[in-house]
Specification:
By secondary structure, the chain is mainly alpha-helical. The chain has one domain.
């Protein structure tokens, strides 16, 4: 076994190659997770109503935004396949189509402003929580365009394997967000005490900073000359249509995945404020472990795209298995900690909270972490194998699988059990665990079917005729 691991580490598409690409992405997604974790922690210190409102409102905003983020983010696959096929002059134009889409996204998101109050009135939460949800949601809408711009531009870097730039920009944006969070929520330095409004404003400002940073770096001279990041600014109808063809299913799948969990949280909120607070805290704890795995997912999608661009599906498959091995090892360790020492994860939330009020929430969170420990192992299949087939262009299958299973296995059964029949929180989390487990198995089977190996999202270049035959001009 030791020899096999060592051999896999040093071989092409082995553990070292995947980790070299994934590690900065793991750090990047970890900074995003840290940002949200501390943001929620500050709000938990501020008031129980603030933390109860922030997660549903934040997830509702993210649900609508996911359609646009997932579509724009698919520039990663286009860049990876163009880069692998050595069609580097098409890299810049592909990213520009994502930037044009970001403008459309921002306009659509601002169109939700008049409907904010109506959206959260459907949740049935207490009037105070509803008011805070609406305030938080409306401010976040104004940051939509910069966030989608950052998503499209990040594909330029990740698709080529330049993942350290993504980490540095993410770290900068996170540092700004956390600093402003503390000042704006509690009212320090020159800022008034803004509470949940301060948290939302800090998030919007950090998104603007990240978008500006991505665009600035992307326009460096060597990128302009090699990848046409400036010359490729023109709108390309065919390239834009192809990005929409593959990117929109990816965006819809992303939106369905988040919306199903948003509805899940809304349904749980009908059980009581303790159940809602416990579920929100459990999701934040899980994000600390889950988000780094997304770094492996992006790395897997990138490597699959690059090797398919080189017409090497065998190496694309090998890189996927290398990524899967490492994510299983990581999540198994985290799952064991969830079960054995759950208070390690609960400590930050309990520091400034009322001990008597938090005791009941703690009991519920400990129970939820057992469910999360179970489904985390299947989530590795969900992330890695879905990323692999999406890196080839099989986005429609992923969309249909998520759309079907989320309602059949999680949202629908949770509503019937908890709302119609009055069952408790354990039933809701049992259905959520079943959904994630079965979805992971479905993506594994799709990957093993190998249909993805013949897929491409980029146009295929015609074969070159030999220069030794001058009577036939080169195509």
């Amino acid at each position: 076994m030791k020899f096999g691991i060592k051999k896999r580490w040093h071989s092409e598409c082995g553990y070292r190659d995947v980790l070299k690409l994934a590690f900065p992405l793991i750090l990047s997604t970890s900074t995003w997770t840290l940002q949200h974790f501390i943001d929620r922690m500050f709000l938990a210190w501020y008031s129980s109503e603030a933390i109860a409102a922030a997660v549903p409102a934040g997830m509702m905003n993210f649900t609508f935004l996911c359609l646009f983020l997932g579509t724009a983010r698919y520039t990663n696959t286009f860049v990876a396949q163009y880069y692998g096929a050595k069609q580097v002059n098409r890299v810049g134009p592909a990213v520009w189509q994502g930037l044009y889409f970001a403008i459309i996204a921002g306009i659509c998101m601002l169109g939700l402003l008049p409907f904010a109050a109506d959206i959260f009135s459907l949740a049935g939460h207490t009037p105070k929580v509803q008011q805070l949800e609406v305030e938080y949601f409306r401010i976040l809408l104004f940051g939509s365009t910069p966030v989608v711009i950052g998503s499209a531009c990040s594909g330029f870097f990740s698709g080529r394997g330049d993942t350290w730039t993504i980490f540095l920009i993410s770290a900068l944006a996170t540092a700004i967000n956390l600093l402003l969070d503390y000042f704006m929520i509690f009212g320090y330095w020159i800022f008034p005490r803004m509470g949940i409004k301060g948290a939302a404003t800090a998030t919007v400002i950090s998104g603007i900073v990240a978008a500006i940073a991505y665009l600035t770096v992307m326009m460096k001279k060597n990128f302009r000359d090699t990848f046409y990041t400036l010359r490729g600014w023109k709108f390309d109808r065919r390239l834009f249509s192809r990005l929409m063809r593959y990117g929109i299913p990816n965006g819809i799948q992303f939106m369905i995945d988040i919306s199903s969990f948003t509805l899940f949280i809304v349904l749980v909120g009908r059980l009581g404020i303790n159940e809602l607070a416990a579920t929100n805290i459990a999701f934040n704890i899980n994000n600390l472990a889950f988000m780094p795995m997304l770094g492996f997912g992006i790395a897997t999608s990138t490597l699959v795209g690059q090797y398919l661009g080189r017409n090497r599906p065998d190496l694309a498959e090998k890189s996927t298995w290398s990524s899967f091995h490492m994510t299983v090892l990581y999540m198994s360790s985290i799952a064991a900690l969830y079960i054995t020492i759950p208070d390690l994860f609960l400590l930050p939330f309990s520091l400034q909270a009322n001990a008597e009020d938090f005791s009941r929430v703690r009991e519920l969170v400990v129970m939820i972490l057992i469910f999360i420990a179970f489904y985390s192992l299947f989530d590795t299949m969900n992330i890695v194998f879905a990323a692999a087939i999406k890196g080839a262009g099989d986005t429609r299958f992923v969309m249909i699988a998520c759309m079907t299973l989320s309602w059949i296995l999680m949202v629908g059964p949770t509503y019937v059990a908890c709302i119609v029949y009055g069952k408790g929180l354990a039933w809701a989390w049992a259905f959520a665990s079943a959904y994630i487990a079965i979805l992971g198995i479905v993506f594994y089977l799709r990957f093993r079917g190998e249909k993805w190996k013949s897929m491409r999202v980029i146009e295929q270049m015609p074969p070159q005729l030999s220069k030794l035959m001058p009577e036939y001009p080169e195509i």
